[in-house]
Amino acid sequence: MVEASIGQDEIIKFIRQRDYEFVRELGQGACGRTVLLYDQQIDQHFVCKKFTPYSEQNRKELFSNFVRETKILHQIYHQNVVRVFNYHLYPDQYAGFIIMEFVEGSDIDKYLTKSPELINELFLQTISGFRYLEINNILHRDIRPPNLMVNVDGNVKIIDFGFGKQVRETLDFDKSVSLNWWCELPNEFSDCVYDFKTEVYFVGKLFERIIHDNEIDQFKYKAMLGNMCERDPGARIQGFVDIEKEIQSDRFYVIGFSEEERTRYRNFADCIVEHIIKLANSAKYQDNMEKIQIRLENAYRSFMLEEYVPNSALIIRCIIDGSYYYKKNDFPVDAVEEFLHLLKSSSLEKKRIIFSNLHTRLDSITRYDPEKADMEDLPF
Questions:
Q1: Mind listing the pLDDT tens digit for each residue in 100-132?
Q2: Collapsed DSSP state (helix, strand, coil) of residue 106
Q3: What gap in Å lies between CA 59 and CA 57, rounded to an integer?
Q4: What's 379's DSSP letter?
Q5: 255 DSSP assignment
Q6: Whole-angstrom Cα distance, residue 35 to residue 26?
Q7: Architecture of domain 21-101
Q8: What is the mean pLDDT of each run of 10 residues along the chain (380 residues)?
Q9: How far apart are CA 248 and CA 243, in angstroms?
Q10: How far is CA 328 from the centre of its chain?
Q11: CA 226 centroid distance within chain
């Protein structure tokens, strides 16, 4: 048997394509259609965004914007940002497709009209999502209620990066988009500037309007929101990283975590981060706190009499959904037991802080592309 060698720059083509069932159309515009698809093989729904502009005018530039959106989405992995799973680009026809996560739910303003008691939780999730975009130098640039979805599990999903931009230098903060904005514009627009402080402003104005329209009086972060809505960028907080730091610091102080509670959290977080070597780009954090606790309790029962967890994957998979490389041994059972005691004795607000901090720790773990890793294992 003679095996043909494959050169370094040679293109490897995978002929078999995945088949989807068409479910329904979700939207249609000047640049194409968005439809809902069903993958029977894995029993999952996906959104397919098809780019085929009807007008020949600026078609090349519009396709370039579509490719930019695809690239941005492909780098994102956060529980509060829509995920992209695959893409197909046809540059010669200025056409393409993005296969994305299906967010079954409603716009954030409609959701909070029905569930105003969740205003604080959804505000924190939104800040978390935009903080992640900020630390990855990604500007969304089209912040409005339809682009902040809330799924059926009550999780915020930031969608539609059609106007998104990855910031690489100072010039990238130029205001290069002009939309029909839905609120009073910040002062920096007169200087043709759009940066992360501008994103802060529009997120603040969005929540300010929702709170006003629904007469919500249980919002906890009124002082912070007022600062976010300052028209003068010099008086406004710098970005979402600073917002989250101030909120976390204030909430730890107000709610009151004892030194013992902090130690229980830190011991568990240290063990998790130590045992996950790297995460796949597509891996996401489990975001249902109740399910995480139930999974940890079930896992704990299976090794509670041991000194060390037989396989740390039993713990990691309770928190991570996706692929990862990990260290198997030496995860102390005591760390799991103490963390469960912490969760059981904590209020919903405390649990929210605990998992928010844990996600921040997990953000520091190296990511990898499973497809590239798999290519290294192919037999040629």
A1: 888 888 999 999 999 999 999 999 999 999 998
A2: strand
A3: 5
A4: -
A5: I
A6: 5
A7: 2-Layer Sandwich (3.30)
A8: 56 66 80 84 86 73 78 78 84 83 90 92 93 87 90 89 48 47 87 90 96 90 92 92 81 68 95 94 82 93 95 94 92 96 87 87 87 48
A9: 9
A10: 27
A11: 25
Q: Which residue is it, tokens 């802060």?
A: 200
The C-alpha R_g of the chain, in whole angstroms, comes to: 23
Mode of pairing for the β-strands spanning 324-326 and 95-101? unpaired
Residues of 115-130 as b/e, b for ≥16 C-beta within 10 angstroms? ebebbebbbbbbbbbb
Distance between CA 80 and CA 85 in Å, rounded? 15
- The answer to whether the CB of 4 falls within 8 A of the CB of 10 is no
- Tell me how crowded residue 187 is: count the other CB atoms within 10 A of its CB: 16
To the question of domain 105-254 being in CATH 1.10.510.10, the answer is yes
Q: What is the DSSP letter of 81?
A: B
Instruction: Name the strand (E) or helix (H) holding 245.
Output: helix 240-251
Domain boundaries, the chain: 21-101, 105-254, 257-370
- Please report where in the chains the tokens 């999780």 appear, as a residue: 155
The residue written with tokens 């088949």 in the block is 19
Classified as helix, coil or strand, 344 is helix
Any idea what DSSP says for residue 95?
E
Number of separate helices (H) and strands (E) present in the chain:
12, 17
